[in-house]
Design goal:
The protein is of the alpha/beta class and 399 residues long. The protein folds into two domains: 160 residues, VC0802-like; 223 residues, 3-Layer(aba) Sandwich (Rossmann fold), CATH 3.40.50.620. The protein is 39% helix and 22% strand. The termini are far apart.
Length: 399
């Protein structure tokens, strides 16, 4: 009796040596969660992950290919090995209607089988050629590849759906993402999460200068990211008081830089409360005035946690292409401004010195004024937990 199922392949996890069981446990947890969304179940058998019982194959594949750590998903058929003619019939059925070139790739894990791998490929290939007239053999650069694995049962698949790859979420610690409504920061978060890092996020909201639509835009971006890496704890930080104080009391050319320094301080405080080990930003060298090497050094100076900038050497077109690929680009382009556009100086400093930045900040740092505003912003942050299939859960940061 044949069975339809999905073969879920992983790649980098194979390289983990003695730590492989740890990575596989995390990967299986995420795969099971993804499969359950369409009623499916996942099992690990003989170093292979199989998903079955789903109600919607296309939806199940789409869910699985978003799981970090999954290399590809293959719709497959499993058949008993004792009926080789049925295996050949299934192979012809899977390639039926196709035209162009093909080859059969066979792997015989069960060495007791009466044919070796080259013989299996030759026999099935000849059968397919006889039954599917639109195909011809090309073993070097075929347009279609039929894979046949002989284990306790025969497994056949001809379609390989690429997935996001990377490492399972939670296998590499936790980081806090400074998430704006722009194009860059969601891509930066995706890149870091793909390496197994669990994300929380920090968004700076300057009401009434940035309204509810701007906030909803960021919530939507966080929800898209959660479709890849699981629930995202998003902290919405009230930033108006700090921005107004910088605008009113500090040297105009330095206002953007000083705003970034305050953001980094707040993000680090939240990261430490969340037990995150690093900060993540979407900055790229030279993209705007606050992203020159000198400006980045000035913002780094106020935090002690590592700051990851995965887009640092990318240009805007590269970032846009990646945003389109992960599905955040259209949302990022919605016309709602974020707090970074509030009180923008006419001539922002591009090559600041740290000493000069500290002097420019003195009207706020003297007397502990800035410390008080930072504390109020952190304590007033709203926590929203975002997941792709659940209602938002809201609480305060102190919970």
């Amino acid at each position: 009796m044949k069975t339809s199922l999905l073969l879920v392949k992983y790649a980098e996890v194979h390289l983990k040596g003695q730590n492989r069981p740890y990575f596989l446990r995390l990967l299986m947890k995420r795969v099971r969660e993804a499969a359950m969304k369409t009623g499916g179940s996942a099992v690990l058998h003989d170093s292979r992950i199989f998903v079955s019982g789903y109600t919607d194959e296309a939806a199940c594949i789409d869910n699985l290919r978003r799981v970090f750590g999954v290399h590809s998903v293959c719709p497959a058929v499993r058949i008993p090995t004792d009926d080789f003619e049925a295996i050949c019939e299934q192979a012809a059925q899977m390639l039926s209607g196709m035209t162009g070139t093909f080859k059969v790739v066979s792997r015989r894990a069960d060495k007791r089988y009466f044919l070796d791998s080259p013989q299996i490929s030759a026999e099935i290939g000849a059968f397919v050629l006889d039954r599917v007239p639109g195909l011809r053999v090309d073993v070097r650069e075929p347009q279609h590849v039929l894979n046949v694995e002989i284990r306790d049962q025969a497994l056949l698949y001809a379609r390989v759906v690429p997935a996001v790859g990377g490492l399972p979420t939670g296998s590499a610690g936790k980081a806090a993402l400074l998430l704006s409504g722009g194009i860059d920061s969601p891509v930066a978060g995706f890149r870091v999460a793909r390496r197994g890092v669990e994300l929380c996020a920090v968004y700076f909201h300057s009401f009434p200068y940035t309204g509810e639509p701007a906030k909803e835009k960021v919530l939507a971006l966080a929800r898209i990211l959660s479709g890849f890496c699981g629930p995202v704890r998003l902290f919405v930080v009230p930033f108006t008081e700090i921005q107004q104080a910088i605008h009113e009391k500090c040297e105009e050319d330095y206002t953007t830089l000083l705003m970034r320094r305050s953001m980094m301080r707040i993000a680090e405080a939240i990261a430490r409360r969340e037990k995150a080990q690093a900060l993540v930003t979407g900055e790229s060298i030279g993209q705007v005035a606050s992203q020159t090497l000198e400006a980045l050094a000035c913002t780094n100076a106020v935090v002690s946690l590592p700051v990851f900038r995965p887009l640092i050497g990318m240009d805007k077109l590269e970032i846009i292409r990646e945003a389109e690929a992960i599905g955040t680009y259209e949302t990022s382009c919605l016309p709602y401004e974020d707090c970074c556009t509030v009180f923008t100086p006419r001539h922002p400093v591009t090559h600041p010195r740290l000493e000069k930045a500290q002097v420019a900040e003195k009207p706020l740092t003297d007397g502990g004024v800035l410390d008080g505003m930072l504390s109020r912003a952190i304590d007033g942050a709203e926590l929203i937990v975002l997941a792709p299939d659940t209602a938002n859960r809201v609480s305060s940061i102190s919970t």
